[in-house]
Specification:
With 126 residues, the chain is mainly α. It has 6 helices and no strands. The protein is globular, with a radius of gyration of 16 Å. The two termini are 18 Å apart.
Amino acid sequence: MSEAQKSIPKWILIVTALFALMEMLVSITICLSPQSVLETVDLNANGVYYLFYMWASRQFALGVILAFAAFKKSIPMLTVAYVFFFVMFAGDFFIGISQKENALIISALVMCLISSALLYVINRKK
């Protein structure tokens, strides 16, 4: 194990693994029960399931990326994964504003703060 790999705190790897699991579970939920994720969407509209599956694949991909980065204990991989995480939730924040959905705004802000904090901890110089 290299020096860089040893410097990642164990709690970051645990949090990353939990986020990976969360993203994969969200993906499965979107595929199996899309009506539970977005109640305001007409599931009979043309092309809706295509969008749901695209969204689910995005969530699943992020889960795999986070899991792989945690498994490899790689600071560069964790950095890229959390930058992606931050950008994704920043987008969700602006979507929440445009849709006037307070729950999405608050959750996106919290996740942006968490990913920013993790990026700081992962990349700080000792």
